[in-house]
From TrEMBL:
It comes from the Bacteria. This is Phosphofructokinase. Residues 27-298 form the Carbohydrate kinase PfkB domain. SUPFAM superfamilies: Ribokinase-like (SSF53613). The keyword Transferase applies. GO terms for cellular component: cytosol. Pfam families: PfkB. Keywords: ATP-binding, Kinase, Nucleotide-binding, Transferase. PROSITE patterns: PFKB_KINASES_1 (PS00583). Belongs to the carbohydrate kinase PfkB family. One of its GO terms (molecular function) is ATP binding. The keyword Kinase applies.
Amino acid sequence: MAQADILTVTLNPAVDVATTVPQVIAGPKLRCGPPRFDPGGGGVNVARAVCKLGGAATALVAVGGAMGDRLLALLAGEAVPALPVAVSGETRQSFAVTDASTGGQFRFSVPGDVMTTPDADALLSAIVAQAPPDGYLVISGSVAPGLPDDFLGQIVAAISAKVIVDTSGKPLDLLIRQPQTPLHLLRIDQAEAEQAAGHAMPALSDSVDYAAELVARGVADHVITGHGADGSVMVSNHDRFICHPPSVQERSKIGAGDAFVGAATLALARRSSPSEALQRGVAAASATVETEGTALCQQSDAEVRFGECKVERI
């Protein structure tokens, strides 16, 4: 199926490690089960999801040290095309441990090494050179320590691709408070929306109104707010949709948001409607939470969930 080019950007990637223990108890040595290793970080997972769903995407990723080599090898093992940008320091690891006695999952994320000005320059140059002019550039995940808070704004201002962003913290706050070139799509969850707005949003209508405010202020052409099991909302100048997910057995939330972005981006790249992109995203996220550890959804499972997702205009 024809699609526009997709390039994902991961500024703070990780090698994701997942394992299990009989029970998490402080004090004694906890003997874990066999570990699972996956390439991780927002943009990396978005590219993986696109490829698993039958599309094509290239992952531009900042990597350093032996762990960076491991991450690239893991991507190659999944046949995900990568554009590595060498940076100083060592690529980080993230850990997820599931307590077999309760099913609870403990997720540990360590910060990446501090990047330098030459690292930032190399990344910006590579992104500008590789961004598909008529395609989609997806910036997903955290921004590495040491990069300027306005680094995402620098990227958006320098390219012509349709930009999709899913991030958090100061970089997100800056994009919202000082919008310049509108993003094509911004995805935020309820907690991020509340933090950016500076107040609680107890009702779904509060999130819808806030998303509409961001669109009106020129932050993005489309804003998606995620509400977990309650669904996701997409707002643009012309439409407002909500998509309700099916009820599934939750095993791991790792990568669900990235799978959402990957599926939605692939749908848009295939010229699907925004409402179908929302539905595809919710379906992929639902299929991902059914997987173990750091695994992402499979195309067949996402297709089943797609038929079970309900989209309504609001």
